[in-house]
Amino acid sequence: MEIFEIITYFLLLALLSTAIRVVTTSNVIHAAISLVFTLALTAILFLMLSTEFVALVLVLVYIGAVIVLFLFGIMITRAPLGKNAELDNDKNKKLGAAIAGSIFLLFSYILINGFDGDVTITSGSSTELLGEILLSRFVFPFELVSFVLLAALIGGITLARKDEALIDEDQV
Amino acid sequence: MTEVLIKVGFLAIAALNGAIIFTIMDVKGASWMQRRPGPLHVGLRGFIFPLAEILKFVQKEDIIPTEVDRPVFKWAPAYVMVSCVALFAVVPLSPTLVVADLELGVFFALAISSLGTIGVLTAGWSSANKYSLMGGLRAAGQLIAYELPLILAVVGVVIQAETMSLVGIVEKQIEWGVPFVVGGQIIGFLIFMVAATAEMMRVPFDMPIGESELTMGFMTEYSGIRFLIFYISEYMNMFILCAIASTLFLGGYHVPLLPTEWVNFYGPVVLLTKTAILGFILVAIRWSQPRFREDQLQNLAWKILIPASLVNILVTAVLKVGF
Fold it and tell me: Is A88 a domain residue?
């Protein structure tokens, strides 16, 4: 158990350093790659808490899809090699610090109050349980979320697509 | 601790060997179909060809151009390699000979296989070369588009098997009597193989590499050992995706009519044979088909494969509930 704890602290330290690098580096691609490592370390921490499903969702959705889309987007717009001075935004530093601090306080308050300080790790698989709960007790919010996603998808298409029939009508 | 080290060593060696077998198969297939004398007749009937290839790349200078983003450029091959090797962890060679029989095996494989895209993208960007950037972007667009049908095609199998563990899926096929490809997942299998070929970036989906127009796509600036890593990972990826396809759809380490008590003995042989047959089909396609145009490629993914796999999921689910 000793070794386990030491590894956990090392992982947390690495997580902190990569997370800080995401916001301090002055190169967009370096920030994105640091974010990959941050998410991967978070996934490893979730694995150590025996919540396989959450860890794999982090890898599949966030690293495999979101970050790849970030990189894709950065590269097709502009991606200067080397440092990018525009990224340093001194005006918003205080605001950012205030927001980060308040979120930290809020989360720690909720975690400490909600679980009374002790963390219970249930043994065995939680995935099956999660699936059953998602499709029985939380089926309405689950469907609602997918509906919102569908709406977002259709919205994206309408914004991006120029309907040729409409354009022709305007010209006439 | 030693157990973990042994498992990691087994993984690396098995994946590398798979890659080398597939390299031999690819070059020998090419020379057989196109009458190239090199890999067919030179040196032990061409079987030492991969060894010569590896030696050549290892002794070459590892050139890093001055304008590149050094750390990103240097580490890009590592992401591709790691994602390929880690994939093999869940493939069962027999009920017991498997590195990790995860309960979420299929999900793990799909999650890990999406990591390679980052390596390809960063390699293309950091090379400071427009051909590389073009190749990287094409690769990313292709990998994003074909990852969806790959995942959706597997969902049908998961519904039919009622488990995500790869050993569990094979056991279900043994219980079923016939592999899933016969037992209702033929469309899923075809979609999976097409999407997997696109994920490997092989002909007819090799737009990102396209030697004739993009020289070598995202690999243009790489040489020596780093190029070798990309090259080996490509074959490793091919080997592992074929192994996963044969596990999910073709019954894995078991063939009907063979006694299940002996599965630990013939399991690896059966699985590797199935993998090699799938691999040979890919080789045959590579050396006889032209390449898809970029728009045809995207149309195939978004307009045909994804709707077809969604219909496949729907039909499988309805039949599952109905019977």
Answer: no
